[in-house]
Hints:
9-stranded mixed β-sheet, disordered N terminus, alpha+beta, 10 helices, globular, single chain, 425 residues, binds 3-(4-hydroxy-phenyl)pyruvic acid, 21% helix
Amino acid sequence: xxxxxxxxxxxxxxxxxxxxxxxxxxxxxxxxxxxxxxxxxxxxxxxxxxxxxxxxxxxxxxxxxxxxxxxxxxxxxxxxxxxxxxxxxxxxxxxxxxxxxxxxxxxxxxxxxxxxxxxxxxxxxxxxxxxxxxxxxxxxxxxxxxxxxxxxxxxxxxxxxxxxxxxxxxxxxxxxxxxxxxxxxxxxxxxxxxxxxxxxxxxxxxxxxxxxxxxxxxxxxxxxxxxxxxxxxxxxxxxxxxxxxxxxxxxxxxxxxxxxxxxxxxxxxxxxxxxxxxxxxxxxxxxxxxxxxxxxxxxxxxxxxxxxxxxxxxxxxxxxxxxxxxxxxxxxxxxxxxxxxxxxxxxxxxxxxxxxxxxxxxxxxxxxxxxxxxxxxxxxxxxxxxxxxxxxxxxxxxxxxxxxxxxxxxxxxxxxxxxxxxxxx
Length: 425
Ligand SMILES: O=C(O)C(=O)Cc1ccc(O)cc1
């Protein structure tokens, strides 16, 4: 955890605290009332005076919707589609003056550096879920709490995840009519120009970096505690092993989950990454080192037009990883791109990756057996790290029927990041 040492909670014997080990490994592990929906917001914490909120507004065109300011902290909600980042900034130096209650709807991760540390989920019964989680031994830094203003009231609690500095705000805002949350002032003003082509609709997935041996424990925890279901990233993935990428410099295990509620096509997935590299540092190890432990490595933002969105963001100054030029010329890639109905020159100019190797697995929940697999593909592009360290970054993802993750794209990203990191040294 940045700036503060913390015992490794992944070393617990049972992945589901309080549940006998054998039962806890059962994916149906015991009826959680938790029906978590798509993330309501993702919290970012900045150390003193790092104005990254401005970049989200000016470059990524997130719209400021609401703000809360105390003498010690500022919290700013920024929105694109239904994706909301809650940017938390300290207004004073030094940890002593800040109490955990300064950051409403969150806990203070004491960041010595920028970190994305909280994912808020809307739930129906906050006290009931908090009670269940507590009875399973989960740590609840904020017990169920009611906050109200003129727009009504909400109930929230915060639970610590077993992964690094990540926490989850559990929120019931069914009784609230205001624009964001009680305690926040709406930010009036003309919406930012939307004719610029940026078409971000929602959070598609959130990828964690787990410590060695930690991805499986995290998978079990989210299944047991939040009722998440396993999501197979690729038809070739064997459930017992996970999606293992090896060779060509890649050594990584990926496991994924999706929330039980919500249509699969629109649900937000959690991807758990763990390094399997034995020799030398890679992007996952680098994250652990520079972040000071496990945490959120990137957030995938779903777009319905990745070409226009990337172009507009690049014009606004966003910087993206670009794959080596050979990516577009070798192994029939240009034909693959054309076959998908895209233009290889445009994708190459912008650095967008396209993958047709992640067709819809007909066994995944929600799969539509009538759709033709040949038309399914996805396109992705990844920003450079957005804080000063090589830690957190954003991704744009445009899914054309493909719900998984393309192996070719992950390899290309891996390579591009390695080249970037080598250049940094
Ligand atoms: O492709 C994605 O968006 C993923 O989430 C998979 C992934 C996970 C970790 C990495 O360092 C690179 C790629």
